[in-house]
Amino acid sequence: MLRKLLDNVRAVILAVAVHLVLLAMLVVNLDWTPKLQQDPGASQVVDAVVVDESKVQAEMKRLQKVDDDRAARLRREEQQAEDARHAREAEEKRFADTQRRKEEEERARQQAAEERRHAEEEKRQTEEESRRLREAEERRSAEVHRRAEEEKARLAEERRQVEETRRQAEDARHQAEETRRQAEEERSRIAEEKRKAEERRAEVERTRAEEIRHKAAEERRLVEERQKVEEEKERLAEERRLSEEKRRVEEKHKAELEARKKVEAEEAKRKAVEERRKVEAEEQRKIEEEAKHKAEEKRLAEEKRKTEVEARKKAEAEEAKRKAVEEKRKADEEIRKKAEAEEKRKAEEEAKHKAEEKRLAEEKHKAEVDARKKVEAEEAKRKAAEEKRKADEEARSRAEAERELKEQLDHESRGRDDAAAKGEQERQDQGVIDRYRSIIKDKVTRSWLRPPGAERNVVCDIYVKLMPDGEVARVTVKHCTGGDAAYARSVESAVRKASPLPLPPDPRLSDKFVREEINFKFRPD
């Protein structure tokens, strides 16, 4: 405003000075010489100066025009200053938004790093638990294998004893019948106990699944509570963590199912061994059925004990995970409080650095303006080079056309006498050329990809310059009726993609294809 006021005062002073100078010029032109004393009888001569009123008016108009031009220029400068101020304010606002986004991204990165750390810790714990399960499974498999070996040795011993006891089988037949009846009752009892064990195992599985669902519901409730105070990004991260937890639970359940399947497979293997033993020593199986059922009871008791131990370990693991979730929630609350304190401190620092940010914004704006000018200059230079290249290509094309026309005229002048004899050959050659031009057109059409939103029934004139091996040396797309620049670029790309193009087998005609530009109309629709 002060600058504007000074400019206005300066303009007024200048206008007043000009008017004073003009007035002084008029005064100087007047004759102020005192009248001479002459004789009474002598005649008196008076000099008069004529002032051109039109010149004065013209000068006044010129000065007024100068004043108007100056006022208009001042208004333009004022408008430019106002525009620059608005641009600076917009740039400052954009810079502030950028700083705020950077701070939000930094907070998001820190939160993501913390979540990754927790995820890695949970993954490590899961891997440790999987390793323990694998080791337990390996030990159990080794135990089963050892028992199978012992069972095999025992069966060998039993087969040896079968020969000895077979002589006593006749005397013990009545006793065997009683033993068979008891064995049937024992088998029924064992089957009932096995069914109850399966029911207890299913109940344990249902209880574990219910605990898992309860835990998932509890975690979802915790997530919903945190959503009230956290941002959308934290909610998504928590959902991803829950999804990962669910996947781990499913993998754990799958591992348990696989372990159970292995146990069932071992059971089936054991049953197969028993069936083979029944085939080999039916009588001995009847006598020793009671011992086998006792072994089965012992095995079921051992499995029951292992199941209870595993259930207790899993319950302890679930409790540890629940405590870890609670500790994580407390840690997140502490982090949130620290983040709020940090934001308050940053807000105070932001007030101190506002002047510095404004200066940086102005320097950045100036740099962007310089960079934009540089880019515009480079773009103008590139366009000039492109226009020069196109002009050179057009000049070369015109020169080649003129040369070919001159050669054709020379050829016509030299071969006018034998034109009739060569007419048929030329017609045949033209037929071959037209056929290969059609083949080239079909190959280009097959290589063409329609741009999105391209119009239908577009016709383009294509001019192709070939190398002796059929490679495309130059392609020019002209006069795309109804198409845009993108359509022309797609057609040019199709021609280059179809390279190398087929040439006639006759060297004379292939040389003509190479010497001259091949032109055809591209009409894909």
Care to count the β-strands?
3
**Tally of individual helices:** 10
Gross morphology is: flat
Structural class by secondary-structure content: mainly alpha
Give the strand line-up of the largest sheet: 2-1-3
Write the element-wise H/E pattern from the N-terminal end onward: HHHHHHHHEEHHE
* Proportion of residues in β-strands: under 5%
Using only C-alpha atoms, the radius of gyration works out to: 52 Å
Largest sheet: 3 strands, antiparallel
Spans of at least 5 consecutive residues with low confidence: 31-49
Query: Mean pLDDT across all residues, rounded?
Result: 78
Helix content: over 70%
Distance between the termini: 67 Å
Oligomer type: single chain
Task: Provide a descriptive summary of the structure in words.
The protein has 525 residues and is mainly alpha-helical. It has helices spanning 2-29, 53-166, 173-227, 232-280, 282-287, 289-352, 354-414, 419-447, 485-497, 507-515; strands spanning 459-466, 472-481, 518-522. It has a three-stranded antiparallel beta sheet. A hairpin with a 5-residue loop joins strand 1 and strand 2 (472-481). The chain is flat. The two termini are 67 Å apart.
Write the layout of secondary structure elements.
Elements: H1 2-29, H2 53-166, H3 173-227, H4 232-280, H5 282-287, H6 289-352, H7 354-414, H8 419-447, E1 459-466, E2 472-481, H9 485-497, H10 507-515, E3 518-522
Helix pairs in contact: 1-2, 2-4, 2-7, 3-4, 3-6, 8-9
Search tags:
525 residues, single chain, 3 strands, mainly alpha, 82% helix
